[in-house]
Structures are given as structure tokens and as C-alpha cells.
Amino acid sequence: MLCNLSIISVALFTLAGVCLDLRLGEARRWHPLVGFGAMAIWIEKKLNGGRFPLLSGAVAWMLALLPAVLLAYAGLKWSGEHSAWLNAGFHVSLLYFALGLRSLRDHVLPIQQALQDNNLNRARTLTGRIVSRDTSAAGNAELAKAGVESLLENGNDAVFGTIFWFVVAGGSGALLFRLANTLDAMWGYKTTRYLRFGKLAAHFDDAMNWLPARLTALSYALLGNTLQALNCWRTQAPLWPSPNAGPVMAAGAGALNLALGQAATYEGAVENRPALGMGQPATAQDIGRAWQLILHSTMLWLTVLVTMAVIFQLRRLHA
Fold first, then answer.
1. CA 285, 146, 30, 176 torsion: positive or negative?
2. Which of 74, 78, 235, 253 has its CA at a distance of 20 to 30 angstroms from the CA of residue 108?
3. What is the tens place of the pLDDT at every residue in 289-314?
């Protein structure tokens, strides 16, 4: 545990941040991640396209990421030296802004409702906002599958990875993770424009996500069809192109008894991806089931963290 926080403080701050996120949801105006994204777009336009894309990408990554994280760290250090309450508020606020638990629900449950209302056009529009695949001609099954897959993968990116790095390194750790994840989402594509420019962003995000992704996959497995989820993780994840999305999505699909992956349309071309999970194809109601899996996994993480804090505190009192 870094940032001079006790385990009981980390547990309470994490609980507060998650509760705040569930209560308030994503900030509608002046969200720091939105501002960061706009700045990243500006930096990329200025630096990408030169003779040395690998070097310019590394410089762009540092210019985008390091000032924000160092400023947050300095603010936490200063507040910790002056007021315990101010320091606590700063940590919790950083976790709140980095978390996306309520945001996941707010983005995907309307897709489920649109599908249940047979409003295919609305479902296509809503799904197109959260996935990179082409949804303009997608049917009910494709949209339901896209919604579930997005939920399972982003459960790690927007929730569990953030909580993990908050526990490890406090508010600045949570911020570092989400900003790194944001840069990977913006620059980590294997296209001509981003293949070399975004290499550092992609590899750094992979490194930060390695352990959280596997803890996320384990959480999904424990709260669903455990044996099937673990088997899908073992056999299917190595075939997936992403080293971290593979375990998360394979375990999640197996836990939910769903058959995901395989064909998806990107820029008008059908891409045959590896299979994920086992069971029935996804339907509209499975979007809600996937959200519940993420919510229950979050409760599991909080329970484990609070229990560890209580046990540690009791042992200290009796030492």
C-alpha cells in the first residue's frame, strides 16, 4: 500500500468512491477524463505523422500522462501534510472520477430496453456509441452480443483495474491507470496511423492491466458457472489477440453460459474472431445479467477488502 495510507483507510476510501460513483454517476459537465481525451487528441495531431513515429508517440504519451499524474500526486502529498480530511476527500474524488461502474450501467441498460421494445434503430445507435464495430445493419443477436462483450471487457477497464490500482497506489494510482487506459483506447490501434505511434500506450496499458484482468476473470468465474468459466479462460483466452481482454471476456462468457465472440463487422468487413464462452447466443436480457455480474464482482472485491482491513486492524489491536 502506497501513499502512506493504512489498509483501513484504503478500504473506507474505496467503499466511499464506489458508493459515490453509484449514487452520482458520471459527471455530466467538466469531466476530467473528457478534458484529458480532448488534450490527447490535440497532442496526437501535433506530434503524429513525423519520420520517427515510435519516438514521437513516446513523447506524446509522456506529455499527456505525466503532468496530470504528477500534479495529482503533489496534491495528495500536500493535502496529506495539512489535513487528513482534505487528503481523504482528494483520494475519494480521484477514485470517483476514475471509476465507470454507474456509467457502464447507464450506457448498456438502455440498449437492453431498446431491444426489448423492438426499437432496432435506437438499439443500433446506442450500441454504436460504445463499440468500434459497425452496428448500422446489426440485428438483435449481434447487438445483444456486442453489449455483453463491451460490458465484460470494460468491467476490467472501467472498474476493477481502477480499484486495483487505487488499493496499490491511492488516488494517483487510480488516475494513472485510467489515463493510461484512455490513451490505449485512443492510440492503441494496429492501423497505419497508430501502429508505431501508439505502441508505448498499448504496451504500458497491457502491463498495468495484466494482474487486474486476471483477478477480474477470476471474479467472474467465482460468481457464475465456475468450472466452465475457468475452462474457457484456459482454452480460449490464448487465442484472443489481446492478452488481457481474452481472459476477462472468455471467463465472463463462460460464467454467464453464453457463446460470444466469432463474427463481427468492422468498417463494412466481417471479421471472424475466436469463440468466447459456451452456451446460448446472447439475448437482450443477457445484457442485464452481464451488468449484474460486474456489480456482484464489485461487491465481492469490496467485501474482501473490508474484511482484510478489519482482520488486520483486529490483529494490530491484539498484538
1. positive
2. 235
3. 999 999 999 999 999 999 999 998 88
